[in-house]
Design brief:
The chain folds into 4 domains: 2-45; 51-290, MetI-like (MetI-like fold); 304-404 and 534-582, Periplasmic binding protein-like II (D-Maltodextrin-Binding Protein, domain 2); 406-533 and 590-630, D-Maltodextrin-Binding Protein, domain 2, CATH 3.40.190.10. Helix content is 57%, strand content 8%. It contains 25 helices and 9 strands. By secondary structure, the protein is of the alpha/beta class.
Length: 631
């Protein structure tokens, strides 16, 4: 019986190890994948490590992560330890109150703490960046240190310090040579927890950062918006660093103990050398990364351009090349949605360039949050395709310069779905029982409702509540009978691997999918679709308008536009680039998703309407609730 229990315990332990470590091993293996897929291993390669090392953003995020983790750990450990010792000598009432206050941030949901820090910095007009992130990390690490140190302090003989001073020690000597050695295990535990919390933190860091400062968690989050295997490489590097740190933490004390047994030297020196070595390495990396652009004077030397863009939406060479050309420093911040971008801009956050979608540009113009462009400074606008000029949201392009454009359509597996079926059913193919459990819906309220409204023969810009309600009912039927999977950008890799028969997708993502899998096709339904355009605009409170227009002009040039579109996959507004990438020998040769349909009378672009937006947002939330209940 006991033997069976032991066997069961071993099996359970083995399963737990597999559960915890299999994903990490999987990630490490795919960091050496030759292909871009995150699920299909196509051969061994170090290309993603090379890409990681060449990416300034990734290396800066590593530097930010570990420099803040080390600084916040050192400071919070000192403050937390002194606080814990001080509390042990305080009155019971004071001690109880402070302990309850200390437990509050630990018990609080992290999002509440994050918003609290953000509001604090906004209220006192503290510019967000590296310092605000460091202060926030110190603040949320201190309670964990106090919590770890307090039990060891309580276990001490209360007369220990007095006895040391009776024997001639000063108060400081009694603290350092008597008290601290006794509570060292608690201090080390608190420091390790603080370090882990800092390295791991995403939510608080995301809300308190600014000026383009990103730690690793923020970087990985933004990279995961599109297929980017460098995520695996940078994550593997972090695992390696943490593993080395853990080995050092465990092996150095053993080494020190052996040296002390042999009576050799000061046992604390190896630890001091190790810490000093880590700090030197991080300082060296920081100097290399933050040395800035030096050399000959350039037209915009010393200026900083702040760009606010969707995640994973810019070619990897664009910013380094522009910085090299102008001498300016570019700070790129990323947003998840147009609505998130709007909140920051409407609240006075200062940027030099925004890259929103058409309907949001219309809103920003209406609310006078943008400024008109000096058309004479953007001479490369002559190379822009006429299809994306003078659009309804900005006639005459007085405020905007096209960045990418495209459509929304159906990505489908040609071995499972025929074009004849698509032409016959259009969007209603998502109600065809033949594809039950084999479809993806896209988690975008605007584009999803566009699909339902078009399937019912309505305009996607309808303001009629009864038509919006019928679109909701269309979705309700879909999610209750078809078992769809509602996803975001994971559809890209999943469809590239042929995981399902069809799904809704943006044309640029479809172009990538088709370039990875020749069995995939892209179809724009005859009922019409959303033809969208994202563009660069300058906020009314921009500080570097001339530099912003220089960047816009640069991105309209052939070289920059080619690099941008080739890397991201969305259609370039530069007509020559579009033709070359689609033409013979181009990256997207013959891939129809790269060239959006134009001139079709049933296609539309979104028009901003706040009332309709709120209705659609509420209805889409109800759709997702129904879907979750069905599943």
């Amino acid at each position: 019986m006991k033997q069976d229990k032991r066997m069961f315990g071993k099996i359970l332990m083995g399963l737990l190890i597999v559960f915890f470590y299999a994903p990490i091993i999987y990630m490490i293996v795919f960091s050496f994948n030759e292909g871009k897929s995150l699920t299909h291993f196509s051969g061994f390669s170090l290309k993603w490590y090379q890409h990681m090392l060449e990416s300034r953003d990734m290396m800066e995020s590593l530097y930010t992560t570990f420099s803040i983790a080390i600084l916040s750990t050192l400071i919070s450990t000192v403050v937390g330890t002194i606080t814990a010792i001080g509390l042990s000598k305080s009155k019971k009432v004071v001690r109880d109150v402070v302990e309850q206050v200390n437990n509050l941030p630990i018990m609080n949901p992290e999002i509440v703490t994050a918003i609290g820090f953000m509001l604090f910095f906004i209220t006192f007009r503290v510019e967000k960046g590296y310092i605000t992130m460091l202060l926030a990390h110190i603040a949320f690490c201190i309670p964990y240190v106090i919590l770890s140190v307090m039990p060891k302090v309580r276990s001490l003989d209360p007369n220990l310090a007095d006895a040391a001073m009776d024997l001639g020690a000063t108060p400081m000597q009694a603290l350092i040579k008597v008290i601290v050695p006794q509570i060292t295990p608690g201090i080390v535990s608190g420091a390790l927890i603080a370090f882990t919390m800092s390295v791991d933190d995403f939510i608080i860091s995301y809300f308190v950062t600014g000026q383009g400062v990103k730690n690793l968690s923020i970087m990985v989050y933004t990279m995961s918006k599109r297929v980017n295997p460098s995520i695996n490489a940078v994550s593997t590097l972090v695992v390696a660093i943490i593993t080395v740190a853990l080995l050092a933490i465990n092996l150095i004390p053993a080494f020190v103990a052996k040296q002390q047994e042999k009576g050799r030297g000061n046992g604390s020196k190896p630890l001091l050398f190790a810490v000093a070595g880590v700090l030197v390495v991080i300082s060296t990396i920081g100097f290399a990364l933050h040395g800035g652009l030096k050399g000959s004077e350039k037209p915009y030397q010393g200026q900083t351009l702040r760009i606010y863009s969707p995640g994973e939406y810019m070619g990897e060479n664009i910013i380094p090349a522009f910085e090299e050309m102008t001498g300016a420093r570019v700070v790129l911040e990323l947003f998840d949605s147009n609505e998130q971008m709007y909140i920051k801009v409407a609240n006075g956050e200062s940027y030099d360039i925004l890259i929103p979608s058409d309907y949001m540009i219309e809103r920003l113009i209406q609310e006078e949050l943008l400024q008109k462009l000096d058309q004479s400074q953007i001479i490369n606008m002559d190379f822009i395709n006429e299809e994306v000029k003078n659009l309804s949201y900005d006639p005459g392009n007085e405020y905007s310069v096209p960045y990418f454009w495209g459509s929304v359509g159906i990505i489908y597996d040609t071995t499972k779905v025929t074009r004849e079926e698509l032409e016959k059913d259009g969007y209603n193919i998502f109600l065809n029982p033949k594809y039950k459990g084999d479809i993806y819906l896209y988690d975008s309220e605007r584009d999803s409702f566009m699909m339902a409204l078009k399937a019912l023969g309505y305009s996607m810009n309808t303001e009629k509540e009864e038509e919006l309600q019928k679109a909701y009912e269309w979705f309700e039927t879909c999610v209750t009978t078809m078992e769809p999977e509602i996803v975001t950008d994971e559809i890209i890799d999943n469809m590239a691997q042929g995981r399902k028969a069809l799904g809704i997708v943006y044309s640029g993502d479809a172009a990538y999918i088709m370039s990875e899998n020749e069995d995939m096709g892209y179809f724009e339904p005859l009922e019409g679709t959303n033809n969208w355009c994202d563009a660069m605009v300058i906020p009314a409170n921009a500080e570097n308008v001339e530099l912003a227009q220089e960047f816009m002009n640069y991105l309209c040039s052939y070289e920059a536009a080619y690099d941008n579109s080739d890397f991201v996959g969305y259609t370039s507004p530069n007509e020559e680039v579009m033709d070359d990438l689609y033409g013979e020998g181009g990256t997207y040769e013959g891939i129809n998703a790269y060239i959006p349909r134009s001139g079709y009378e049933m296609d539309e672009s979104f028009v901003f309407n706040e009332r309709t937006r709120k209705i659609i947002s509420n209805l889409w939330s109800k759709v997702k609730i129904v879907a979750s209940n069905v599943n």
